[in-house]
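ARCHIVE CARD
CATEGORY: sequence design from structure
SOURCE FIELD: tokenized fold
FIELD CONTENT:
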């Protein structure tokens, strides 16, 4: 097409900008993955999470510069905390683009390309990575990135194709055309196929799984957006120009929400002609459903895969993901069992793609279990609901060292705080005092108050709420060091 950037033959080694897209709920991994702690942040069997693994994978890539993370504002502090767990300075090596509203991959990538053009240069090459993929072979990954960079510097929009190992019906496919140095021209993109069609794709050797990993120069991507998706590019550009910048963080403007909810595949890749695919054979798992998660667990002699305290008696070919209590199975087979403190999922293994239907029903009924766990993460720490009933709720609150909650007030509830470990600095009205271990304090409804951990160890306390209404939205925030305006306490 006339508007496509024409591939050139000039080779260069421009800077590489790893772009990590961190969002999405991972609804097929419910009840472990939920809106406020989605798939990139859930702990895997080895204790790591996918976002941390993705960051490690790009740290030492050749020509790589500063990492750019594009995420929803709700996940900003969770993302920073995740990287801080790698090393105290890890998060300072990342820049952030924060979306006011999730709008799929095309708007996110458009904003990333605009950022790269201004901050690095229009020839900067973007390596766009979902944060929820698992790739263990870092050497093969780096080699594939090198091939993709070569094609990107020639003006191609490059995608990565995974050589299929089975006739998967849950993945999109890429049909390859003429060969290129390091890859192929893309003939066409194909939707998730029926079983028979998927089997033919695997057999002919000219179809690859669409990995959702991309590589292109900032200039080429913006040109492609202008030609094929101006309705995506224009709101992203306005949102970037109106962004509030705070150090390494860009809070994109409200115009971002005007962009259509559309993937980069639909917006650009399926329409442009300068599309190339780099075929790869490294291990790749998008953990799209519980069967994929089960592959991370060791298999016993009966084909079972289990995590946590699990007892299996005369049971075969089951996947069991336990929590902090015993899960026992007797005389069953081909089951998926996922136990969390507040929700239990039991399904046939071959129905794991349909877990999303459960999540959809929960959404329609307004059930909070689609959004939150018993333990909720906040920038200052966590809280865990221990018990609740008519007019009362008990929480375990953990405040990280040197962190503090907002100065706030509640209209409908009073609170009792009992310090279990550490020292609390408490503001109640105009009074400020220290509350030591085994001491308590009381906050009447309608009184401004703040909780702070001045120490070097976590502050742990029990909060008992009482009142006519105990919802998290009963809050008036007067002052907050995290700049939050909508996220509850």
């Amino acid at each position: 097409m006339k508007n496509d950037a024409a591939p050139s033959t000039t080779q260069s080694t421009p800077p590489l900008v790893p772009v990590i897209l961190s969002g999405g709920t991972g609804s097929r991994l419910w009840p472990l993955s939920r809106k406020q702690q989605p798939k990139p942040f859930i702990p895997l069997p080895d204790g790591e999470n996918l976002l941390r693994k993705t960051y490690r994978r790009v740290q030492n890539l050749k020509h790589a510069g500063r990492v750019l993370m594009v995420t929803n504002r709700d996940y900003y502090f969770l993302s920073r905390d995740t990287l801080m767990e790698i090393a105290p300075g890890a998060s300072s090596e990342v820049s952030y683009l924060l979306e006011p509203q999730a709008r799929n991959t095309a708007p996110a990538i458009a904003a990333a390309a605009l950022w790269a053009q201004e901050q690095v240069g229009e020839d900067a090459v973007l390596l766009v990575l979902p944060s929820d993929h698992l790739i263990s072979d870092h050497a093969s990954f780096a080699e594939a990135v090198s091939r993709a960079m070569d094609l990107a510097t020639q003006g191609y929009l490059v995608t990565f194709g995974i050589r299929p190992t089975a006739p998967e019906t849950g993945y999109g496919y890429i049909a390859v055309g003429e060969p290129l140095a390091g890859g192929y021209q893309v003939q066409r993109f194909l939707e998730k196929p029926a079983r028979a069609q998927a089997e033919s794709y695997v057999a002919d050797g000219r179809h690859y799984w669409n990995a959702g990993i991309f590589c292109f120069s900032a200039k080429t991507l913006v040109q492609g957006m202008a030609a094929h998706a101006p309705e995506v590019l224009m709101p992203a550009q306005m949102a970037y120009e109106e962004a509030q910048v705070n150090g390494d963080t860009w809070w994109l403007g409200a115009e971002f929400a005007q962009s259509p909810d559309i993937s980069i595949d639909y917006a650009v890749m399926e329409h442009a002609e300068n599309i190339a695919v780099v075929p790869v054979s490294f291990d790749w798992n998008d953990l799209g459903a519980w069967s994929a998660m089960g592959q991370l667990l060791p298999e016993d002699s009966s084909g079972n895969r289990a995590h946590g305290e699990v007892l299996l008696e005369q049971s075969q070919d089951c996947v069991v993901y336990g929590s902090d209590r015993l899960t026992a199975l007797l005389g069953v087979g081909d089951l998926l069992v996922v136990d969390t403190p507040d929700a239990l999922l039991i399904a046939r293994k071959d129905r794991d793609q349909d877990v999303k239907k459960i999540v959809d029903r929960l959404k329609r009924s307004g059930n909070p279990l689609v959004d939150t766990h018993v333990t909720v993460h906040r920038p200052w720490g966590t809280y865990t609901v221990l018990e609740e009933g008519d007019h009362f709720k008990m929480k375990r609150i953990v405040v990280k060292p040197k962190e503090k909650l907002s100065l706030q007030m509640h209209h409908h509830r009073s609170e009792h705080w009992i310090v279990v470990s550490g020292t609390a600095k408490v503001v109640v009205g105009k009074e400020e005092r220290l509350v030591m271990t085994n001491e308590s304090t009381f906050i009447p409804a309608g009184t401004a108050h703040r909780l702070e951990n001045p120490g070097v160890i976590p502050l742990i306390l029990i909060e008992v709420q009482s009142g006519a209404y105990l919802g998290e939205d009963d809050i008036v925030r007067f002052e907050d060091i995290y700049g939050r305006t909508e996220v509850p306490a």
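CARD ANNOTATION: The domain at 375-479 is CATH 2.60.120.10 (Jelly Rolls). The first helix runs from residue 50 to 59.
SHELF: design records, drawer C
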